[in-house]
Design goal:
This protein has about 325 residues and is of the alpha/beta class. It has two domains: about 170 residues, NAD(P)-binding Rossmann-like Domain (Rossmann fold); about 160 residues, Dihydrodipicolinate Reductase, domain 2.
């Protein structure tokens, strides 16, 4: 299977590392030999129809920060690479944009238009234009998979749609952002205030330099929309979510909750057709009370009752666990051969 890789930041480089790490295992277990034939970032594109040397490319980009500095790279833009470099599948891992969905939305639609399957971790296009993307994939006869976009390494969509396919999912709720969970966990255990804890999270690399997407609840809301559409068959968009972040949580509020046997967690929830993201009281012994950067999601079902899964919701290698799973699903269906 030939792959166009679009985006070579943390997740894109993680994808390259994952293929290097798993190369022999994939061949031995599945007879699967993926070949990345193009890599695009904002500076240009590296192309090799026979397969790019991923180790050499990682070495160069780790040193310079740019694909254009790799030997043989050109200023070819990503859309031109998607349309012009022969491949069966595109992996789209550019940064999330919840305002316009770009450039990821255009990348996905272009790949589908030329008959390529799409695997992505990019939340923005899915939160804004899921209906259009799904309709385009169906029209063009390609597969569109995005397990890694909501929950990182946690196989939430596959769990609901495959393992629990005989169940009706009544509601979904969970902690879908590791940064906010780290901050709230730290505030709970150490009694620190929000600003101090956020600064520590930034110093540790857990929070971004601009953490607004996480602490405002926007990241959780985007993931909630994706889960709602993919699992419950809705056509929700980001604007359908009531969103409240964690910036107003005080040590006093956390201490008061603790006295009553509760912790405060940022919970994304869809129930009775309503989507919300807000800080909520969670009993200390409840399955949703996980610490640190862990994520957790719970499905309430008609047959199995409550099914809860805990895992890493972010991280380069962890996210690529889900990306690789999606690619293998396409390959094993025979669609990508």
């Amino acid at each position: 299977m030939r792959i166009n890789l679009v985006g070579f930041g943390v997740i894109g480089k993680g994808f390259a590392k994952t293929l290097i790490m798993k190369r022999d295992w994939l061949k031995a277990r599945y007879g699967f030999e993926p070949s990345v034939v193009s890599i695009s970032d904002i500076t240009g594109t590296l192309v090799n129809p026979d397969g790019i040397d991923l180790s050499a490319t990682l070495e160069t980009v780790n040193r310079t920060g740019r694909i254009i500095d790799c030997p043989g790279a050109t200023v070819m833009q990503s859309l031109d690479a998607i349309r012009g470099v022969d491949a069966e599948l595109m992996v789209e891992v550019t940064p999330t944009n919840v305002k316009t969905g770009e450039p990821g939305l255009s990348h996905m639609l272009a790949a589908m238009d030329v008959g390529k399957h799409v695997v992505t971790s990019n939340k923005g296009p899915l939160a804004l234009a899921y209906k259009k993307l799904r309709a385009t994939a169906e029209k063009k006869g390609v597969q569109f998979k995005f397990e890694s976009s909501a929950g990182g390494a946690m196989p939430l969509i596959n769990l609901a749609n495959e393992v629990l396919s005989g169940d009706e999912i009544i509601s979904i709720k969970g902690i879908l952002n590791g940064t906010t969970n780290f901050i709230l966990t730290k505030m709970t255990k150490e009694g620190t205030d929000f600003e101090t804890t956020l600064k520590e999270a930034q110093e540790l690399g857990i929070a971004e330099t601009d953490p607004s997407y996480d602490i405002s609840g926007s990241d959780t809301a985007s993931k909630l929309v994706i889960l709602t559409n993919a699992i419950l068959g809705r056509e929700a968009t980001y604007s359908d979510v009531s969103v409240q972040g964690i910036t107003k949580i005080t040590p006093e509020a956390i201490a008061l909750a603790k006295e009553e046997g509760f912790v405060i967690k940022l919970i994304g929830e869809v129930e009775d057709g309503s989507l919300s993201v807000a800080p909520k009281l969670v009993p200390e012994n409840h399955p949703l009370n996980v610490d640190g950067t862990l994520n957790v999601a719970s499905f309430t079902t008609d047959l199995a009752g409550d099914v809860t899964i805990v895992g890493r919701g972010a991280g380069a290698i962890e996210t690529n666990s889900a990306i690789l799973s999606d690619i293998l699903s396409i390959y094993r269906s025979g669609a990508g051969r």
